Amino acid sequence: MAVMIETALEHAFSELLQVVLQQTIQTARFKTLLKRLEKTLKGVQPVFYESWTLSKVLDRPEKEITMFIDYMEKGKELVVKCPRIHFWNVCQKLLHSNKLIRLNNELLRFFQIEFHPMSTIVRTLIGVYDLADKMDQVLSAISTRDQLVYKDATLCNVPMLPELTVGLDSHLDELKRMLLNDDTQVVVVSASGGCGKTTLVKLLCHDNQIKDVFGENILYVTVSRPSSLKTIAQKLFEHYGQNHYEFQTDEEARNQLERLMWQMGSDNKLLLVLDDMWSESESIVHDLKFRIPGYKILVTSRFLFPRFNSTYELSLLNEEDARTLLCYSAFPREGIHNNVPDELVNKIVKLCKGLPLALTVVGASLCGQSLLKWKTTYKKWSEGQSILQSNTSMLLSLKSSIDELDELPIVKECFLDMGSFPEDERVAATTIMDMWVELYNLDDEGMYTSENLLELSLRNLINLVPRGKDTSELEGYCNELNVTQHDLLRELAIHLSSHEPVEERKRLFTEIFGNRFPTWWTEQITQPLNTRILSISTDETFSSIWYHLNAPKVEVVTLNIRSKKYALPYFIEKMHQLKVLSVISYGDALMSSSYVLPNLTELEIDRCYDLTELPSGFCNLVNLKKLSITNCHELDALPKGLGSLSNLEILRLSCCTKLQELPKSIEDVICDEETSYLWMNVESDLYNLKVNVVEDDRIESFMKIIQ
Questions:
Q1: DSSP per residue over 4-19, as a string?
Q2: What span, in angstroms and rounded, lies between the C-alpha atoms of 429 and 449?
Q3: How far apart are CA 276 and CA 232, in angstroms?
C-alpha cells in the first residue's frame, strides 16, 4: 500500500509539473505566478530521488497524503484554466490568482519537512498565505453582498449598514427625538470628517421607528462637491424614473422638484437625507424646504449651518467603544489578540482620540503585524505632535497608515494618485489600473495593478464594489469593480502630495469654481511645471475658457468636468509626454477638439451622459493603444475612421446602451484564440463583424484592429 501511495504521489506531482511548464511557455496570463509555481515544483522535485527525504514526507496519515494527491489533481485543472480567464475580468483574475498562490503555498507546506533548500521561500511566502486569506475575505464579501451593494448604488435608496456599528445608540435616540419633533423641519448632523456622521444617519434610516413613520419615502442623496440644486433635483427625478428632465435654472429645478415632492408625500411623510453637504451648500438646503406636511430634511456636514437651529453635534467615541472598533479591524478573529498586550492596544486607541475613521484605518494597518510593529508604531506616534486636535492634525494621524506603505513604494504612489479622482464618486477600476500601468511600467495584463488595488482595499484606504447587480449576468462584463474612497482619505492624498512648491510637485490637483482659477495659475509661473500627473476638477458653471499652462512633463491628465458643455484644454497639445487622458464628465456634451496628441496611448471617457458620437479628431490619435468608453448612454455611433488606429489593442465599451454596431472600418478583427472568445459574446449583435483567429506568436498576444 505504501508503494502505491508513493507512486500515486509522484505521478500527480509529475503531471502538475508538466502542465505548469507547458502553460508558462504558452500563456501570457498569470506569468509571474506560474513561474513562481514552476520554481517551487522544481525545488521539490529532488525529494523523489532521495529516499530518506521522501520517507519523511510520507511519514504522515495515509488519508492526508491521499487528500493532497487529490489537491494536486485539482491544481492541474486550475493551471490549465489560466488561459481561459479573461484579462478584463478583474474580480475573476483576483480569485484565480489567489488559488494559484494557495496551491504554491500548500506545495511548500506539504514538502517542507527536512526540506532545507526551500526553507527561505517558505519563510518568505508565509506572509503571502495570510494575504491570500485576506483576499478571500475581500472577494467573498464582494461576491456574497453583490446584490446589496447594487442596491446601495441605486440612485437615492438608503445605503446598507456597515458590518459593525459601535457607540451610536445614545446618539441615535437623541437624533430621532430631534427629527420627529413637529416644530423642526431641518436637522443637521455636524462633526469633522471621519467621525461617523454618515454611519449614524444610515443607522437612523434603518431604524424600525423611523421606517414606521416614513415607510418607503426615505430619499438618500450623497452630495458631492461642488454641487447645486439642479444636480440634486436631477438625482431625485431619476430615482423616480424620470430621466429626461433638464433644468435651465435653479429656480426651475426647485419648482419642478416641489411638485414632485408633493406627489410623493401626499399620502405619507417624506424624509430627504443630504449626506456630506459643504458650507457653500447651506443655501441649497434652504431652497429645498417645501411646505409639505410631514416633510423632513436631514443633513450631514463637517460644518455648522447657523441658518438652521436644530444641529446635532456628533461627539467622538468613548474609550471602550473606540477599543472595540480598533480591535474589530486589527484582530478579525472575534477581536482576539494573543500576542499584543492590552496596555499597548489601549495606548494606540488613545492616540486615535476616538475618531472612527482613524481607528478603522489604523487597525487595518496593524492587522497581522508583529508585536514589534505595534511597539514601533506607538513610539513614533507618542514622540510626535498630539493628533486630532484640528483638521491638519487629523490628517497627520491618518498619515501613519500611509507611512506603513514605505515598504511598498509603488502601492504608496498608487494611494497618492487617488487624489486625482472626484470625491464621493465611483471610478471604474480599469481606469485607475490603466493609469498605473503607464506610470509605473507595470504588467499590461493587470496582475500587479490588481494586487495594488487589493492591497489598498485591505488597508481600508479604498473600497472595491462590483458594478453589476448580479454576478451571474454576463459574467465578467457586469462584474467589473468600481473604486470609491472616503473624502477624508482623498484629502490626505492631496495633502501629502502638496508639500513642495507648485512648480515642483509630482502631482498637481486643482479645482476650478465658476471661472475662478487658482492664483498660482493666473499669475503664470515663469518656469515650467514639473508635474507628471495633472488633475483638474470643475463645477457646472465652468465655461471651458482655459488659461495657458506650461507643463511639458505631464504623462497623465484627469479631467473631472461638471459643466454642461466643455472642450479639452488647448494646452494639452503641448504636453508631448502625455500618455493617458481620462475624461470623467457629469455634464453632457464633449465639444469637438482638433488637438494632435502624438504620444497619447490611453483615452478614458466616462459618464458623458448626452454624448451621441465621438469627435472625428480622435481618429488622429495614431499611438492610441487603449480606448475606454463607459456610461455614455446616448452614444449611438463610433467614428467611421476608428479602424485607422492601427496601434489600438483594447477597445472597452461598457454601458453604452444605444450603440448597435461597430464602424465598417473595423469590421475585420484579427486576434488570438483567447481574445476571440470576447468577441463571440457580441458577434451575433454586430452583423458586420468578422473575427479572424491567428496564432499567438504572430500578434504577440495582442488584439490588432485593422482597416
A1: HHHHHHHHHHHHHHHH
A2: 10
A3: 13
Query: Which residue's C-alpha cell is 507547458?
Result: 22
For 627, list phi and psi in degrees, rounded to 5. Answer: -125, 115
Tens digit of each residue's pLDDT (9 = 90 or more) over 508-565:
999 888 888 988 898 766 688 999 999 999 888 888 888 889 999 999 999 988 887 7
**Range in 376-385, 432-441, 589-598, 659-668 the model is least confident about:** 589-598
Per DSSP, 541 falls in state: T
What span, in angstroms and rounded, lies between the C-alpha atoms of 302 and 642? Answer: 47
Report percent pLDDT > 70 for the chain: 79
| CA trace torsion 25, 26, 27, 28 (10° rounding) | 70
Q: Which helix (H) or strand (E) holds 229?
A: helix 229-239
Which whole-number Å values give the CA distances from 465 to 254, 448, 558, in the listed order?
A: 33, 19, 22
Sign of the torsion formed by the C-alpha atoms of 359, 365, 367 and 371: negative
Residue 444 and residue 436: Cα distance in Å, rounded? 10
Length of the chain: 707
Q: Which residue has the higher pLDDT, 470 or 413?
A: 413
Q: What is the pLDDT of residues 143-181, one digit of tens each?
A: 433 433 333 335 788 988 888 899 999 999 999 999 999
b or e along 249-273 (b: 16 or more beta carbons within 10 Å of the residue's beta carbon)? ebeebbebbbebbeebbeeebbbbb
Name residue, grid cell 499611438.
623
Cα-based angle 221, 226, 231 (whole degrees, multiple of 5): 50
Instruction: Please say whether the beta carbons of 79 and 102 come within 8 A.
Output: no
Instruction: Return the amino acid letter for 248.
Output: Q
Looking up cell 458650507, which residue turns up? 279
Specify the DSSP class assigned to residue 513.
B
CB 507 within 8 A of CB 491: no
